[in-house]
Amino acid sequence: MLINTYTLEIKKSRFLAFYYEVTNIEEITNILANLKKEHKKAKHFPYAYRIGNLIKKSDDKEPSGTAGLPILNILEKNNLNNVFIVIIRYFGGIKLGSGGLIRAYSTAAKEVIKLNQE
Question: Which is higher by pLDDT, 51 or 96?
Answer without folding.
Answer: 51
